[in-house]
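Open question from group meeting: does this chain pack into something compact, or does most of it stay loose? Before anyone orders reagents, we agreed to write out a predicted structure and look at it together. Recording both the input and the output here so the notebook holds the full record.
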Amino acid sequence: MSLDPSYLEYPKRRHGYDHDLYPWSRLSDRPPVRWPGDRSVAVWVCVSLESFPLTPSDKPFRAPGHMQTPYPDYRHYTSRDYGTRVGFYRLLDAFAQAGVTVSVAANGAVAERFPRVVRDTVAAGHEIIAHSTDMNGTIATGLDEAEERALIDRSLDALEMVAGTRPKGWLSIARSQSWNTLGLLKQAGLTYCCDWVNDELPYRFNNGLIDLPLNHELSDRQIIATQQQSSDSWAQQIEDAFDWLAAEAAANHGGRMLPIHLTPYIMGLPYRIGAVEALLERLAARPEAWFAPGRTIVETWAEQQ
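Structure tokens returned:
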């Protein structure tokens, strides 16, 4: 039995991608990026500050880290709540001790329910970026476009009400988007998103929105919660990545970027926070390191394009 000829027909078969969202680009072919102070590695710390409803929603999917046992799942609920009550403040202290400024990706519900946390973040000089409404606010294909637009607006409105400024960055839950997300983020006035992980420098979508890649492979959730490795192993892998990027930047005469994704209820525990403090101290002492929030990295990159 022969194949129907239409089976081999695909209108997007061509050089490059099967979409028109952004062009393919090899990192080594781009003009070199220079970070302030002639530093070669931009270190971007991004903290996920999450509000988990006691009863999860599975539509369009259940968010990573959500409740797991029959409800009410107080064990997992309170372990997540530990992040906003205790763990996040340990991270704020660690950032102050190292003298670094970070991005905090907050659910809108954090601003509504725990406004003190957002105010303390802003008072410490850190950037607030939007991270949906709460951990039931997932996005995927099949979500009605009007509903997705309303979700984005509610998140931005809630954070602006408490932080005093409207976020410029967006991180989707599980980095998941629908076919409409990029356009809706642009329409909402956002400058950048952090969902696409296919690079180590920012790049621009065809609609003008910028992607600031937040690679998940070095996240605490991936290394510690999923792979069950130690906090010391996590810190060593971060430093290994920094060493490689610094050497690559020197060889290619252009800047690189290292994202560090932290979760307060994971890294804020008393037997892990020491690893965070020590890592930040060591990296901050490196002459190649430039710590900056996402907004500043994106602005610095965009000025050179």
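Observations to bring back to the group:
The mean pLDDT is 95.
The CA atoms of residues 37 and 48 lie 28 Å apart.
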